[in-house]
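User: structure tokens for this one?
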Amino acid sequence: MLIDNRGKLFGKVNIIDILIILILIAGIAMAGLKFFKSKTVTPFTRLDDIRTEIFCEEVPEYAGKEIKPGDVIKDPIKNAEIGHVKDVKLKDSVSYGTDSSGKWVVSPKPGYVSVYLVVEGKGVYNDGKAKSGITFDNSEYWIGRQIELRAGNGALLGRISKFSKLD
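Assistant:
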């Protein structure tokens, strides 16, 4: 007989004990899945070399001139380091407005510049299949995302225009 008159399976193990063991095994399995599928970058995660291009359309000229190659780029909101500036280009600012006929026009704004930054840093490059974007310091970023930046002694507001994995 499978269960005897004392409620033991095969005369050796109590059914309640088996149920408790099965619940514990299921709980451990669920916790393991949660941790192994986590998006968190651990010390054991292999980091990729990533080039990120950032466009800031309208920055005070004095702030744009403060950014130099080698400066660290950080996102102060998420406390994430994006990398180090490799190249900085200052051009005429891009300001949008309407003319006298009501048409939208683009024109430069005196005292302001557009800043084009090329930044290289360590992060996780996602292939776009299982997960998209890039991850720096456990913060995810995508092309077109507007971010506040600290670069050198300057503060900027820009958008990620491109990123790529370096070989």
